[in-house]
Specification:
- It is a single chain.
- The protein has about 130 residues and is of the alpha+beta class.
- The protein has one domain: Roll (Nuclear Transport Factor 2, Chain: A).
- Helices cover about 35% and strands about 45% of the residues.
- It has four helices and six strands.
- Strands 2-1-6-5-4-3 form a six-stranded mixed β-sheet.
- Helix 1 runs antiparallel to helix 2.
- The protein is globular and about 40 Å long.
- It starts with a helix and ends with a helix.
């Protein structure tokens, strides 16, 4: 397994555990994230979002492919609370100097329950 995959596995576990120290250790100071429902710019904004995130669960069936400084992961995000859902996702993660600098996540928003969409809208409003 490449070092980049190992870092991404640690970050995935840290996100599920809401472990700020690991996120700060492995995210580049100029980190950016883009997804269908939101955008994050900077490690501090990422950590604030993570802390506000009311969802419990984790990743399953994660497969990773590495090409240079990029790791692509395909996974099922399994939400256990406050609702239950299994959402297939793909994420393209770019590293710089051994840290995650950029992430782009792709998923079908139609698969999310209405309460998830409402919670995301509320979180986006709080983060603004």
């Amino acid at each position: 397994m490449s070092d980049l995959k190992a870092i991404l596995e640690k970050v995935n576990a840290a996100w599920d555990a809401k472990d700020e120290a690991v996120i700060r250790q492995y995210f580049h100071k100029e980190y950016s994230f883009k997804g269908p429902m939101m955008e994050i710019n900077g490690v501090d904004q990422c950590i604030e979002f993570m802390k506000m995130c009311p969802f419990e669960g984790g990743n399953e069936n994660c497969e990773m492919i590495t090409e240079g400084n990029t790791v692509v992961q395909s996974l099922d995000w399994v939400v256990t609370a406050p609702f239950q859902a299994r959402i297939p996702m793909m994420e393209v993660v770019k590293f710089e100097d051994g840290k995650i600098k950029e992430s782009r996540m792709l998923f079908d928003t139609a698969l999310f329950p209405a309460e998830f969409v409402a919670a995301m809208e509320a979180m986006r409003g709080q983060a603004a």
